[in-house]
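Chapter review: from sequence to fold.
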Amino acid sequence: MIPKIKTELIKKLKIAIEITENSPENLPKNKYAAGVFFDKLKDAPDKLKNDDNLILNALISWFTPASKWESFVGDTNLGNEIFTLLIKIRRKLKNDEQTEAEKINAGLKSKTKSEIFEKIQAILKEGKMEIAFALGKIHNIYEKELAEPWNELINSVYVSINMMRITTLRELFNATSISFRVPDFTSVLPQIGSLKNLKRLDLASENLTEIPKEIGSITGLEELNLKKNKLTILPPEIGNLKNLRKLGLDENKLSILPKEIALLKNLTSLSLSRNKFRKFPKEITSLTKLEGLFFSENEISELPENFKNLTEIKALNFNDNLFESVPESLKYLKKLQILNLQRNKFKTIPEFLEKLPNLDRLYADYGIFTEKQEKRFKLPPMEYGF
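The token string follows.
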């Protein structure tokens, strides 16, 4: 991407973000569409800095003249300028891809068609779909033929949002959110690592006993659902998923986590309920952006001292564990709003929980609240978990 154009685009996007934040009346009546647009707009500058080219397509769809972007950012000229820059960048990227394909082709003059096909497949496995397609076109090897080694994977996945089947190689590589819904796809799992555009991957309820190390190459992944499998261990490569925000691991057979979990610094939601933990994984205490931690139905009885570092937590679930007293480290969680401690072994609620300024939903066993605490947390006597 041309640094000068990219810098100019980021500058104008930040102006659009500021206008939209300060003038909510500019947002359309369709609140869902407005929310999607604004989320992408807010994330766009950072994604562009990291050369996340997928965000370009999303922005072009919002700022194309037919989308009436002036209703979003309240400035027709600004919208025009952003759209023009986006088109310039996309054209430059396409030219770069074609140039790269021709450069690779120069070294293939003495190769057989079979060897060229293998080279293109290797490029696909690196996630460089457009370069692979451009090179294939030079040699009259088109998408349908290139897709053959990928057909099993193509036939195994759905677009997660609407559960529609993926039918082409281009759809597979452009997909940002996919699910598996077939009896057996373990042989194609390593190919997932080639899908560089993926943001959300759903592998729940698939009887998985292991996750391939290739998972670590999907570095743009933001949500990973591995719930309801038979996992006993996670690959260290999971630590490569630096953009991961949500990780679901409920209902597996985990008793430890790899130390590389501590590298997931952008994680905001982690669920590990119904596993086999007897000791709280200390690696979690490094995840200082966590807002939701769900750890019910394990067998832990204490928390490490560094748990107090998780000051961003708003929702915390420790029901059905073995705590004999409420962990004192919870008193440092000033942003905590919801806390579930039902069905543990303690018989009293400590006063420090009453002092947490934002805690308004506390779930614990019936009968252990004082009258003062019942009023403080405004709970009906038999209200149960969240």
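Two observations follow directly from the output. The chain has two domains: 3-106, 197-377. The longest strand covers residues 177-180.
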